[in-house]
Amino acid sequence: MARSQWGFLTEKLEQLFYPQVCSFCDSLITEDDAGPRRYVCRACESDLPFRLNDEIYPGHTPFLLAVSFYYEEPLLLALRQLKFHGRTDFAPALASYLHATYQRLKLSCDVIIPMPLHYKRERQRGYNQAGLLGEALADLVGIPLLEDALLRVKASGRQSERRGREEKLANVQGIFEVGEDGLPALYGRRALLLDDIVTSGATMTEAGLCLQEAGIDVLGMACAAGGLRPD
Ligand SMILES: [Zn+2]
Question: How far, in Å, from the CA of 119 to the mean position of ligand 1?
Answer without folding.
Answer: 34
